[in-house]
Amino acid sequence: MYPTQMPSAPPTYDEVISGPQVNPPYAPYVNQPYSTQATSGTVVALPLGPNPARIKCPNCHADIRTSIDSQPSCAAHLCCLLLLLIGCCPLSSLPYCMDSLKNVRHSCPNCRIVLGSYQP
Ligand SMILES: [Zn+2]
Question: Which InterPro entries match (predicted)?
Answer without folding.
Answer: LITAF, LITAF_fam
